[in-house]
């Protein structure tokens, strides 16, 4: 059995991750790929309970260490019960956020030590890393405005603008550190353009196209 591919979608608040998950799933299915769609924090019964604890605004103040450990506790469940079994059965896993979010939010946003995050990453994931990460990037005010239109803010969305600026910076640093894996998509353009850029990257992963292939008329959005 050929192992499946692991694709993650990342980016700050309201950049369009959820919107584009369905698009990517459909695109992969059109190419006869069996896809498991999931998210973090979450993806299993226990991990979804942890998600609720992390996002609810009404719980006691969560310490930075507790937040980091809860993220990885949820991830450990998710990997063991969803991600690894699916990949081992040849399915592709499409995940809304993964450990790059921890580097961005807990590292960049909460200022937790990167070496601590790396240690937990190795403990919980072993050698598991995404094959491809699509980083949707947009100026912070655009993402927040999109989220605001949707209604009430969760615990993370209620943070100050500087928190989100630090997250954006940390994500861009991750993209610089891992240019082979993380592909930057400009998310502050009309949705059809965002999706064209996403398709161009996925086509490379599918082996339908090389990196320099002029897959679509407006190819310039992918790093
Ligand atoms: N977290 C998570 C951590 O702190 N550490 C971690 O390790 C992990 C894994 C999870 C929270 O947990 C934190 C980060 C998060 O705060 P979440 O729900 O997964 O929460 O993440 P959110 O960013 O809150 O998800 P959102 O739903 O708010 O944002 P999305 O999914 O990026 O945006 P989406 O698709 O819902 O779009 C928002 C709106 O914009 C519109 C959409 O229609 C929608 O209305 N839109 C566009 N409009 C115009 N042009 C475009 N190109 C558009 N694309 C989307």
From TrEMBL:
One of its GO terms (cellular component) is cytosol. CDD domains: TMPK (cd01672). Its EC number is 2.7.4.9. It holds the Pfam family Thymidylate_kin. Belongs to the thymidylate kinase family. Phosphorylation of dTMP to form dTDP in both de novo and salvage pathways of dTTP synthesis. HAMAP family: Thymidylate_kinase. This is Thymidylate kinase. It comes from Candidatus Methylobacter titanis.
């Amino acid at each position: 059995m050929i192992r499946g591919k692991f694709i993650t979608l990342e980016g700050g608040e309201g950049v369009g991750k959820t919107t584009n998950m369905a698009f990517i799933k459909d695109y992969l299915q059109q190419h006869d790929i069996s896809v498991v769609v999931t998210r973090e924090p979450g993806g299993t019964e226990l991990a979804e309970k942890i998600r609720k604890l992390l996002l609810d605004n009404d719980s006691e103040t969560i310490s930075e260490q507790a937040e980091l450990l809860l993220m990885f506790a949820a991830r450990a469940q998710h990997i063991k019960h969803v991600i690894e079994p699916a990949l081992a059965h040849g399915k592709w896993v499409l995940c809304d956020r993964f450990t790059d979010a921890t580097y961005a939010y807990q590292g960049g946003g909460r200022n937790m030590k990167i070496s601590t995050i790396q240690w937990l990453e190795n403990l919980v994931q072993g050698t598991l890393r995404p094959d491809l990460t699509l980083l949707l990037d947009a100026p912070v005010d655009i993402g927040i405005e999109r989220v605001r239109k949707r209604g009430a803010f969760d615990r993370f969305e209620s943070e100050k603008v500087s928190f989100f600026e630090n997250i954006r910076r940390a994500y861009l640093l991750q993209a610089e550190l891992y240019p082979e894996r993380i592909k930057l998509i400009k998310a502050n353009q009309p949705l059809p353009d965002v999706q064209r850029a996403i398709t161009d990257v996925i086509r490379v992963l599918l082996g339908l196209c090389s990196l320099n292939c002029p897959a679509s008329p407006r190819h310039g959005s992918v790093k």
